[in-house]
Amino acid sequence: MNMKIAFVGKGGSGKTTLSSLFIRHLAATGAPVVAVDADINQHLGVALGLDEDEAAALPAMGARLTMIKDYLRGSNPRIFSAATMIKTTPPGDGSRLLRIRENNPVYDACARGVELDGGTARLMVTGPFTDSDLGVSCYHSKTGAVELFLNHLVDGRGEYAVVDMTAGSDSFASGMFTRFDMTFLVAEPTRKGVAVYRQYKEYARDFGITLRVVGNKVRGQDDLDFLRAEVGDDLLVTAGYSEWVCAMEKGRPPRFSLLEDVNKQALAALQAAADETYEARDWARYTQQMVHFHLRNAQSWANDRTGTDLTAQVDPDFVLGEQQAVVQPG
C-alpha cells in the first residue's frame, strides 16, 4: 500500500520514539520509506541511530526552500517565480511531482539515507529553530518546506512517507494536518495526555482526518481502562516499558529483530491500520483541501506579502493523483 502517515502528540509523549520504531519496522519489511522530522525539537535522526554530530549535519529543508520551490514549480505558467510560491501553493499543469522511490534534486539536496538493520530509509529534516529566528520568524517558516513536499508527493503502492510532527496541536496553524492518510496520536494515560487528542479530534472532524490513538507508557489495566474511557474506539494499540527502547535511548540499540514481540505486534497493527485506509483515498478531496488552505492563506496574508494575487495559482482542471506522476516536465 501507499501511505502518508503522521505521528502527533504532546511533548514528551513518546511520539518521536514510536515514529522511529515504525520507520524501522517498515524498513525491515523492505518497504521504501521517506522519514521527515517536522518537529521543532529535531530528535528523529538520533532516534534512528545517528549520533548527535551526524544528526546536526543533516541538510535542513528550511534552508533550501527557494531551491525546493524552483524545482517544484517546474514549467507551471501560473507560478511566476519562487518568490511568489508559498507553503500552500498547490501543484498544477507543468508542476514537478515527487515520488518516494525516485532520485531527484530535492532528495539530492535534502535527504540522506539511513541504514536500519539491513533496511534503508530516506531521512529529511526541517532544521532546528535557531537563534537567528528568535523574534523574527515562526517555526511554520521551517515546516513550509514539508508542506510543499507533501503537496507535490505522489506515493505509489508499497511506499510510505512518515512525518514526525511538531508537538501538541500546533500543526493546525497550517493545512499540513490534512496531508495524511493516517494520523497516529501518541497519548499517555493522563489528563494532559488525552487533552491533545480532544483538540485533534475536534479540529479534524470537518476535514475527514483518519485518527487513531497509540497509548504509550501504559503500565497496567488501570492505565488501559483510563485510555479506553477517554478515547473510546479510537484507541488502536498500547505500548509499555521496553528494554529495547531503553538501550536505543542510551545509544546502544540491539538488532531490531530483538524488539519485544508485543511491540512488534503493535507496530504491525499500526501498519495494517494505515494500509486499510488505502481504498478510501480520495485524490479529488485531497486536492480540494490543498486549494482551500491556499486560498485562505492567499487572502489573509500572502497576497499582501508577495504583491501578487496568489489565488490565480490554482489550476481548476488539475487533480493530484498517481496518474499525474507518470509525466514530469524536465
Automatic annotation (TrEMBL):
<dbReference type="InterPro" id="IPR050625">
    <property type="entry name" value="ParA/MinD_ATPase"/>
</dbReference>
<feature type="domain" description="CobQ/CobB/MinD/ParA nucleotide binding">
    <location>
        <begin position="9"/>
        <end position="226"/>
    </location>
</feature>
<dbReference type="GO" id="GO:0005524">
    <property type="term" value="F:ATP binding"/>
</dbReference>
<dbReference type="InterPro" id="IPR002586">
    <property type="entry name" value="CobQ/CobB/MinD/ParA_Nub-bd_dom"/>
</dbReference>
<dbReference type="Pfam" id="PF01656">
    <property type="entry name" value="CbiA"/>
</dbReference>
<protein>
    <submittedName>
        <fullName>ATP-binding protein</fullName>
    </submittedName>
</protein>
<keyword id="KW-0067">ATP-binding</keyword>
<dbReference type="InterPro" id="IPR027417">
    <property type="entry name" value="P-loop_NTPase"/>
</dbReference>
<keyword id="KW-0547">Nucleotide-binding</keyword>
